[in-house]
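It is time I had a proper look at our fold encoding. Can you supply me with one protein entry, sequence and fold together? It will help me judge whether the discrete encoding reads sensibly. Leave the record below and I will have a look:
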Amino acid sequence: MTTQHVSVLPQETLESLAPQPGQTMVDGTLGGGGHTRQLADAVRPDGKVISLDADPRALSRCRGLLEGLPVELVHSNFRELRTLVEEHAWPLFDGILLDLGISSDQLADSGRGFSFLDEGPLDLRFDDAKGESASDLLNRLTERELADTIYKYGEERASRRIARTIVQRRQATMNWTSLQLAELVASVVPRSTKNPIHPATRTFQALRIAVNGELDALELALRDFPNLLKPGGRFAIISFHSLEDRLVKHAFRDNPRLKVTHRKPIRPTDAEIAANPRSRSSRLRVAIRLDDGDIEKQPFINAPKRSEWHR
């Protein structure tokens, strides 16, 4: 198994985390292993990268690619990092990275339903051994629950029409496929000449987030991970849509133990977007864990004033 995933913002992420030889870093979303490899190269020979992924296929793909590097691969969702720290008695980390996007490998796997351009079972789970599939979710939720889910997690204005049509058709469609759902949504939400994205994009995003509990996991990480960092340790998060980025922005800004490094998110260059179009919507935010004694006296870098934290 090989990877076709290209990590986004690779140089910007490496510079923001500033890994040094001998340090211990966490990559909470292994994906295609690109970020993990960069971090491992920077911390060796005496450092270590603990790399997690909820998708067992990602671990299988990357095991050979990362052979010989100081990397420990763990099959786990990053939401479980605090528990893993307690179980393994890991020390505090020098840096933590989360890349919240789905990988090109997942999109290319037609048996999982991540792409609405290929026919395949509508699963959408990162780990298909846990939880219910998106197809099961479509069949279980009421029309109102479906509409609320699609609107909340996909910010889809036509969520009520989509939910109504799904409920009307699901008696004849118990085992949904990606193309079936994509065609259904396209029939309800025609493609806009002003917006080039596929009409089903937001609905698929919403179902994927719901099935995997992605925002719950992110909120947990934003609450707990600063406590897993050494003073001076760095917390970097790459997000791909406004729901994620909004959570990260507010959590970084409002946590007095974190120093925001940039007021605005770091975005990909035009050259990167041209080489990797999927990087277009990526946004990187970084914060530094303060020493407890410095929380009140150390100024923020390019960050809002304290009086603006809760606005």
